[in-house]
Amino acid sequence: MNRIAAAILVTVFLLCTASGRSRFRPSHVLVPSMNRRWAVTLGLGSLAACLMLAERTTATTIVPLTDDDLAASSSVIVEGRCQRLRAEWNEDRTWIHTLVTFKVTKVIKGDLQPGIIELRQFGGQLPDGATIIWGAPYWQKGWEMLLFLNPETDGTLRVAHLSLGYFRIISDQRTGEKLVVRSMPGPNVRVIGPQPFARCEKKDDFVARIQSLVISGAAGQAPRSPRIEPRRAVGRSPNRPPSDFRFLSPGFRWFEPDTGDRIRFRVNRDRSPSPSGGMDEAIATAAAWSGVPGSSLRVEIAGETTACGLRADGTNAISFNDCTGRFDPPVNCSGVVAIGGVAQAVTNQSVSIGGRTFARIQDGDLIFNPDFGCILSDPLLLSEIMTHEMGHALGFGHSSDQADEPNEILRDASLFFIAHLDGRGASLRTDDMDGARFLYRATPSSAPLAILTDALPDAVTGSPFDFGLEATGTGPFTWSVIDGQLPGGLSLSSNGRILGTATSEMTTAFTVSVRDVANFEMSRSLALRSTGNPAPFVAAAKFMSASQKLIITAFNVDASASISVNGVPVVPPRAVKFKAAKNRLILTGSPADLNIRTDAPNTIVVGIRGQISNSFVF
């Protein structure tokens, strides 16, 4: 079974409000810039207690709300403890969510009584798949928490604004005093705005301030109108340091460019605040990622769709319709603006590039908060955000996650964790293009590296077995088993042949890797059964029009085999011939005799002794 792995990156924006704050300074969001404030307010012991949590946070792009706006935009604010976690698929198995059993000990805001409630958070992991939302809360049984909550469309509560509404309650190891902590996210954190994400404060002070906002009614005031303050473009130096690039963890890429195909996205224009409905910005974004010299990456906007993203539905959607209810409404033009990344990946198909392994992406989505007209109605701002988020959907991480990044090339990248807002729109810079050339290299080969074998015939216990794996590309190829093992008595040679004599009945799973002449690698998971009663297996088929022969390469068959072509049992004018030395069944007859369509793919199934083979298409 294919395993689903989703990796979503989130863009959260905070722009300057009318409360008298200056325009945003990115350095304010870093943990180092917060240290002095924490040391003065809490003392060095409290600071150490807060910093211990930093390693647990996951990657995201965050720009937080003020406490006033967070409290005002949350329906419920509670204290309590996480008691139980359970992940499950949604009804149509397009994503996984986590059900959190939470014991409420204190209600600060909202029509709720202390007791047991169940929260539903987007994202989670199961044995057959994962939906990973970078920036979603991290849960652990027994943790004490202070949560800002909002209801889903069905009334189920979830944390407001992803992890912006999530605070842990911990004890200062020096004083024993309770602290509320929101740890600074680690890699792949994109930031816009003046408000710090990382927080560490005495719990009593924090709760008292929130309670006063609720009592005074300030936690329900109407949003103010923001101003958008652009950043200055990053200067360029003639002696720039070397470029570097990162990728979406643990490693994803599309395989379409390897065969000259395009990655096709479609736009759902419903509720888009852009004058073009997002179509012009999407076309410009696709052109930017498709125009990298030395890269085979080609992205196409293939029209419109009604899909709305964040679903493993086979449609790569760029949408503005929040049909899954993932966004809270913005407050003072603050909150979650966009989510973009990998919605589905096939973990049993991967390639190795430069010593890194990348699983095959099958579905990538971008979804924008439809209520963010304050940002998304500007075509240049939308284009810049879309270019960044599409980069994540293509498998790229951030060029850097340091606000004081000294490397000008990394700071200048469109995949830098701080949005530039310098009028660049849909454009790539040096580091972005270096990453595209690495992950999607242009290849002179007319047949890029690809493993063609996707299934194996049964091995007969006690009998010699010989089957060759197939790949396209530029050889010579070198094959190896990189995970698991073959049945006892069988082994894989470096030239791709599985040889030996199976000693006992069993079925094993393993992963093979093939490396081409340029050291480009690809892997695939396979299964092999050794048995005394093997099923027939079709490995190849070809109709020779000149000789009017259908030649089928098949294992575990003989001349008594029955053959179906396109679902119709075939009785050829002449008897079926079997050449055991070459594992070939030969049928003679015209296309009409053999039910072969000359202008369309044909499907062959072979049966023998009550067992049928795989369906082979030629």
What is this entry, summarized?
This protein has 618 residues and is mainly beta.
SSE inventory with pairings:
Elements: E1 4-14, H1 31-51, H2 67-72, E2 76-89, E3 96-109, E4 115-122, E5 124-126, E6 129-133, E7 144-151, E8 157-159, E9 166-171, E10 178-182, E11 199-202, H3 203-216, E12 252-253, E13 263-268, H4 279-290, E14 299-304, E15 317-319, E16 334-353, E17 356-368, H5 373-376, H6 379-393, H7 408-412, H8 430-439, E18 450-451, E19 459-460, E20 464-468, E21 471-472, E22 478-484, E23 490-492, E24 497-501, E25 506-515, E26 521-531, E27 537-544, E28 549-555, E29 562-565, E30 568-570, E31 577-579, E32 584-588, E33 603-608, E34 611-612, E35 616-617
Parallel strand pairs: 1-6, 12-17, 13-14, 13-15, 15-17, 19-26
Antiparallel strand pairs: 1-16, 2-3, 2-7, 3-4, 5-6, 7-8, 7-9, 9-10, 10-11, 16-17, 16-26, 18-21, 20-24, 22-25, 23-24, 25-26, 27-28, 28-32, 29-30, 29-33, 31-32, 33-34, 33-35
Helix pairs in contact: 4-6
Describe the structure.
With 618 residues, the protein is mostly beta strands. The protein has four domains: 1-6 and 236-294 and 346-437, no CATH class; 17-220, Beta Barrel (OB fold (Dihydrolipoamide Acetyltransferase, E2P)), CATH 2.40.50; 450-531, Sandwich (Immunoglobulin-like); 537-617, Immunoglobulin-like. It is built from eight helices and 35 strands. The strands form six sheets. Strands 1, 5, 6, 12, 13, 14, 15, 16, 17, 19, 22, 25 and 26 form a 13-stranded mixed β-sheet that branches. Strands 2, 3, 4, 7, 8, 9, 10 and 11 form an eight-stranded antiparallel β-sheet that branches. Strand 31 (577-579) and strand 32 (584-588) form a beta hairpin. Helix 4 (279-290) packs across helix 6. The radius of gyration is 29 Å and the shape is elongated. It starts with a strand and ends with a strand. The model is unreliable at 1-6, 13-61 and 221-244 (pLDDT under 50).
